[in-house]
Specification:
mainly beta; 28 strands; 7% helix
Length: 426
């Protein structure tokens, strides 16, 4: 008991030293050396709102640097708003990545990063809510080569205050004690949607059956157009889809899209059943896809596509795309376990929702994608995981309509599909 009290007093003294150093005029101050275990807590004060989309210019600012260990950077660009911590001296851990939809302001935002490299744990908190929680099945120790003995605060329109550095990993309960109580839980909606309306009632509005894979004369989904190294096999009423290059030496390769040949109406209901077969992977759906000038995406005048992601998010086609399943150990982040709606042909994040399909769900899930003019709703087994209305404004460009629908899988993904149907929505 006495030993525990002494340890707590030492930690409190370390925290106090850091706070005194940070609140002074000096932008560069010493800390107790940190390396394999540490907790960093700080507050970011914005001078104005920061949104993704067309409506603003690029902003990039170093928030703080731990010389020899890593740095935390704020980025505002068309595609997203991001707060990212990047290591200087390790390759096996990808750092921390927080991608809120926006940062309203002027306002204050609390960030806490904590890790134990020896145990393979690294968690992050935004306004006291975890944006990154390491899955216990993914605990993988990594090596940090250098230690940090100083903190340097960056200069720019965003101000960093209340910096605390502790040379050990912190539990969620310990993190809460580091935070300003008035910030806990505020503005958390910028991370992802937490409250959703009930599923839209569409049964009575289903019109013409536009497409069904079960009755396709060409043999169902296996007759779709594949771009990239995709393989489609049929077994009974199930379609199995995988890559010819499941473990590519170049991480940008091995991924693929496969497209339904039919044109879709402006408003539609698409339903299918999906089951992950491989342990890791990522799967999503593209819809309302046309050439950037309204062409059919299979127009021979458009550039050839072969599954490389930039061809779809920043190429010659415009579309919505929604990632609804992911289990990517390399990202080590909760963000990639959410439903995520994006828009191209200059990629922008429109909205995030709850996890759609759990990575270890070993059975089919019934998914439903509804596009009702400019409203997009996605649900899994009757539970809405994302609901977004595209305003069609200058920030993200016009509402997309018509075009093609198709699926995307990353190289390591093996997945099963069945009972794909699309109805016109009256």
């Amino acid at each position: 008991m006495i030993k525990r009290i002494i340890i707590d007093l030492v930690i409190c003294a370390q925290v106090l030293i850091c706070l005194i150093s940070c609140t002074g005029e000096n932008q560069d101050f010493e800390i107790t050396p940190i390396k394999n275990q540490a907790t960093i807590s700080f507050v970011v004060e914005t001078d104005k709102p920061y949104y993704n989309g067309y409506s603003d210019s690029l902003v990039k600012q170093v928030l703080l640097t731990l010389p020899g260990l890593g740095k935390c950077v704020f980025i505002r660009r068309y595609s997203d708003v991001r707060i990212q911590f990047m290591w200087d001296s390790t390759q096996s851990h990808r750092g921390f990545q927080l991608t809120p939809e926006e940062l309203p302001g002027p306002d204050k935002y609390s960030i806490v990063l904590t890790w134990d490299a020896d145990a393979g744990i690294s968690n992050g908190y935004f306004q006291g809510i975890d944006f990154r929680t390491e899955d216990s099945l993914n605990y993988t120790p990594w090596e940090i080569l250098n230690e940090a003995t100083r903190v340097e605060l960056g200069e720019g329109p965003l101000r960093v205050t209340d910096v605390t550095v502790i040379p050990r990993y912190s539990t969620a309960a310990e993190v809460s004690n580091l935070l300003q109580k008035d910030l806990i839980g505020s503005e958390i909606n910028v991370l992802w949607q937490k409250e959703f309306s009930a599923p839209m009632e569409v049964e009575s509005r289903k019109g013409k059956l536009v497409y069904t894979s079960e009755n396709d004369k060409g043999g169902g989904i296996e007759a779709w157009i594949v771009e990239g190294p995709g393989i489609i096999d049929t077994e009974d009423d199930v379609i199995y889809v995988r890559s010819k290059i499941p473990d590519p030496p170049d991480p940008s390769t091995g991924h693929f899209n496969f497209w339904c040949r039919e044109d879709m109406p402006q408003s539609f209901v698409a339903e299918w059943e999906f089951k992950p077969v491989s342990e890791y992977g990522l799967a999503g759906v593209f819809f309302s896809a046309t050439g950037e000038n309204g062409e059919d995406i299979f127009d021979p005048a458009l550039p050839v596509r072969d599954g490389h992601y930039p061809q779809y998010h920043s190429g010659a086609i415009a579309s919505y795309f929604l990632f609804y399943y992911t289990n990517r150990k390399v990202n080590r982040t909760t963000d990639y376990s959410t439903s995520w709606l994006l828009k191209a042909n200059n990629i922008s994040s429109l909205g995030k929702g709850e996890m759609g399909i759990h990575p270890r769900r070993n059975e089919f899930s019934k998914v439903c994608l509804i596009k009702d003019n400019n409203r997009i709703q996605f649900s899994v087994n009757g539970r809405v995981t994302l609901d977004f209305t595209d305003p069609g404004n200058e920030r993200w460009g016009p509402v997309l309509n018509g075009g093609k629908i198709g699926f995307r899988q990353m190289a390591r993904t093996v997945a099963a599909y069945r009972k794909f149907k699309v109805w016109e929505l009256k």
